[in-house]
Design a protein that fits this description.
Elements (H helix, E strand, L loop, with lengths): L13 E6 L5 E4 L1 H6 L13 H6 L19 E7 L4 E12 L2 E10 L3 H21 L5 H15 L4 E7 L5 E8 L19 H8 L4 E3 L10 H9 L5 E8 L2 E9 L6 H33 L9 H9 L7 E8 L2 H8 L1 H19 L3 E4 L4 E7 L3 H17 L4 E8 L6 H23 L10
Antiparallel strand pairs: 1-2, 1-5, 3-4, 4-5, 6-7, 6-10, 8-9, 9-10, 11-13, 11-14, 12-13
Helix pairs in contact: 3-4, 4-7, 9-10, 10-11
């Protein structure tokens, strides 16, 4: 099951997970193991949940597996004679690797006022989960979850940080209460050393609870300064895992002191849904990238070009550079398609060096396009000269046609057509100069 169950290891509530098909116990957190007389997870292998939890030889009459579904908690109360206390149970279904698992959290209700407060908070968070899972995109789901959790737990700010490819941390999602200054923009590419102590804690399955910021002033000065600047007095932060690897964390700032422990428990419970939404977001991004990217050259394809054009602003200048990889067919015929692929990739690398900050697209077998929004005419010409030099250094020839407009008064498609015509003129001049016609017939 990987690291997902580690979210619940240190919770002060009883948590267990069982296989919904055969009732085998899969997991118990540390408190549950101790409560039922076990010392390790190995000791529960092969045991049924009803045998351990209810002391029943067959599935108990209270089993509600048929009522459970992912994303919702089924709540019920029961006087548990084994624990000698009134307990609120929160049950849900978690789907992993094509299998369905029952997760149950047993919460000691205790005093009436504590019970009422808890039920109210649970209702708010359950409502947030229900609304969040109805959103159209995973990112919207995450934003709704953070908002509902922030409001329910009475925090000033909730957020998600993700490790980027540089090993630094990016604040990717954020909710702030009314009157609280957003921090997301200022917390991009946060140096790894700032959260280094947190990540050490995460590696052993721990999480972070800071009841008073001054407590870490000496022990973690970098993080202290980071949090102090944000007017953070207290916080709870929980790690996010993917296949056993810590990929970031999420948390809440300045919740009421008396609810810090409860906030810690709720964040650990909800971490599963946060991770699921991040995974779905990443999968959608991957599919989108694959559908919009030419797999050989790793620049955009026609779909990407059309979207790029739709997002252009008509008030800005625009340069079009239309290129044809001259000699691609001969290379394929004489040296094989591997050589032809290399010619295309090398041609794109030259184009990237000259116009990499703009939109680059492969729109045909041997046709490449650079759409340069906001470029000046002189800069466009300089880019073309640089492109020709890069090509010369690699002994590659591209037929090039370009056009520039100060303001995009004509349609972009018309400008592309004009640049294509100029490219064919350049191509014809090349073949005329060298006496070569790639199609073996007169004219281009």
């Amino acid at each position: 099951m990987g690291k997902i169950w580690e979210f619940f290891d240190t919770m002060d509530e009883l948590v267990y997970v069982s296989d919904m098909d055969n009732h085998d116990l899969i997991y118990m957190n540390q408190k549950a193991l101790r409560t039922y007389g076990f010392h390790s997870l190995e000791e529960i292998v092969g045991k049924k949940c009803h045998e351990v939890i209810r002391h029943c030889s067959t599935p108990c009459s209270l089993c509600n597996n048929h009522e459970l579904k992912p994303g919702y908690f089924k709540e019920w109360r029961h006087d548990n004679p084994l624990l000698d206390q009134q307990v609120m149970f929160k049950d849900t279904m978690i789907q992993e690797d094509g299998k369905n698992y029952r997760m149950e959290i047993a919460i000691d209700l205790g005093r009436q006022e504590q019970r009422d407060s808890m039920v109210n908070l649970e209702a708010k968070i359950n409502e947030g989960l229900r609304v969040a899972l109805q959103q159209e995109t995973p990112s919207q789901t995450l934003e709704v979850l953070l908002e509902y959790m922030g409001i329910a737990l009475r925090g000033e700010r909730t957020y998600i940080f993700e490790r980027n490819e540089n090993g630094c941390d990016d604040n990717t999602y954020e909710w702030v209460a009314s009157g609280v200054t957003p921090e997301k923009d200022a917390l991009q590419n946060l140096p790894a050393e700032v959260c280094a102590n947190w990540y050490q804690n995460f590696q052993t399955g721990g999480h972070i609870v800071i009841k008073n910021l001054e407590d870490i002033r000496e022990s973690d000065p970098l993080q202290y300064e980071n949090l102090k600047r944000q007017n953070i007095r207290s916080l709870v932060v929980v790690p996010l895992y993917n296949e056993g690897e810590v990929i970031g964390f999420y948390g809440i700032d300045n919740p009421p002191e008396k609810s810090l422990d409860y906030a810690s428990d709720m964040l650990q419970i909800m971490a599963h849904f946060i991770i699921s939404s991040l995974k779905r977001r990443n999968l959608i991004r991957k599919f989108r990238e694959m559908s919009y990217r030419d797999q050989l050259t790793q620049i955009g394809n026609r779909y990407a070009m059309n979207e790029y054009i739709n997002n252009l602003q008509k008030e800005q200048s625009l340069g079009i550079v239309y290129c044809d990889v001259t000699g691609l067919k001969q290379t394929n015929d004489q040296k094989g398609h591997s050589a032809g692929d290399k010619l295309l990739v090398d041609s794109c690398e030259c184009l990237k060096k000259s116009f990499g900050e703009y939109g680059l697209f492969r729109i045909g077998g041997d046709e490449l396009l650079a759409i340069c929004a906001g470029i000046g005419e002189v800069t466009l010409r300089q880019g073309i000269e640089q492109l020709k030099k890069e090509l010369q250094d690699k002994s590659i020839y591209l037929a090039i046609g370009c056009i520039w407009e100060k303001e995009t008064s004509n349609s972009v498609e018309k400008l592309i057509t004009e640049a294509e015509k100029r490219m064919y003129k350049d191509k014809a001049a090349y073949y005329q100069k060298f006496g070569v016609d790639r199609r073996g017939i007169t004219g281009i």
